[in-house]
Amino acid sequence: MKREDSWQLTSCYKKHTCSKATKIGIMSSQWLSKAFMKKICENPKIKLRSLIKKAHSKWNVDLTMTKAARVKQQALDEINDTYGEQYRRIHDYAAELLRSNPGSTVQIQVERPPEFELETPPPGTDLRPRFQRIYICLEACKRSFMVCRPMIGLDGCFIKTPYGSQLLTAIGWDPNDQILPIAYVVVEAETKDSWRWFLLNLCDDLGVDKIRWCTFMSDQQKVTLNLNLCN
Fold first, then answer.
1. Per-residue model confidence as pLDDT tens digits over 160-213
2. Could you give the C-alpha distances from 49 to 27, 46, 63, 119, in angstroms and in order?
3. Which of 64, 75, 156, 191 is placed for a possible disulfide with 33 were both Cys, Cβ 3.0 to 4.6 Å?
4. Global pTM?
5. Do residues 189 and 222 lie in contact, with contact meaning Cβ atoms separated by under 8 Å?
6. How many Å apart are CA 30 and CA 212, to the nearest integer?
7. 214 phi-psi bin (left φ>0, alpha ψ -120 to 50, beta other)
8. pLDDT tens-digit series, residues 72-105
9. What gap in Å lies between CA 135 and CA 144, rounded to an integer?
10. Are strands 151-158 and 215-218 parallel, antiparallel or unpaired?
11. How far apart are CA 50 and CA 62, in angstroms?
12. Farthest-apart Cα atoms in the chain, separation
């Protein structure tokens, strides 16, 4: 419209002779990988046909199996690089927790490849330490639990990332019957050794006098060590 920032529909042709375009060059594999990033991050093993079906239903675009595979691989490469960068900064994360929460406890355990023990490792071997476990107990949560009922619930769950791992938690109950997180760890797997490492650190934080009177609740009797941990 003249002298206006608007449009006016003057003609309407109900019959269309043009065909639908289901192959659009502007929707490159790089653009599609960013569009599917969240979906692939939630399910790295998603099937290519699911991506093809999603692209057709959302944008009316037909993807070939080759392009869908390229889209998925580009998204996985971006996701893995992002996770790798976060793991490389795990010590920065620990330092920030200790700075912003004085009195807290953060323990990081790493593992090295077997070649690290050799005097002359094979050329090209990556000898950098690899993340294995991290234990976190914030000072505010610890002080709160010291005045709560002596009951600790233990549980674990999987962490859905390309690197796997599991989250183990210890929680209490506050006077309002609300969940009070005490401490948590990220470990390579839920094993007797990882639970023992978690509870030993918890004993050091809470003290023997407090934890020896605590009642532990666990869904699968993961913790049979009980008070022997603190002896």
1. 777 778 999 999 998 888 999 999 999 999 898 999 999 999 999 999 888 888
2. 18, 9, 9, 50
3. 75
4. 0.67
5. no
6. 57
7. beta
8. 988 888 887 777 788 888 999 999 999 999 999 9
9. 18
10. parallel
11. 12
12. 87
Q: Quick one: tokens of 176?
A: 């309002």
Q: For the segment 107-124, what is each residue's pLDDT rounded down to a tens digit?
A: 999 988 777 777 777 787
d(C-alpha 141, C-alpha 3), whole Å = 65
For the chain, give every domain's residue range: 29-80, 101-115+129-218
Contacts of 170 (CB under 8 A, 6+ apart): 152, 153, 154, 181, 182, 183, 184, 198, 202
- 3-state secondary structure (DSSP) of residue 148: coil
Burial (CB count <10 Å: 0-12, 13-18, 19+), residue 185: buried
Six token digits for residue 95? 């330092």
HSE-CB at 183 with a 13 A cutoff on CA atoms is 25
Q: Which of 131, 133, 137 is nearest to 171 (CA)?
A: 137
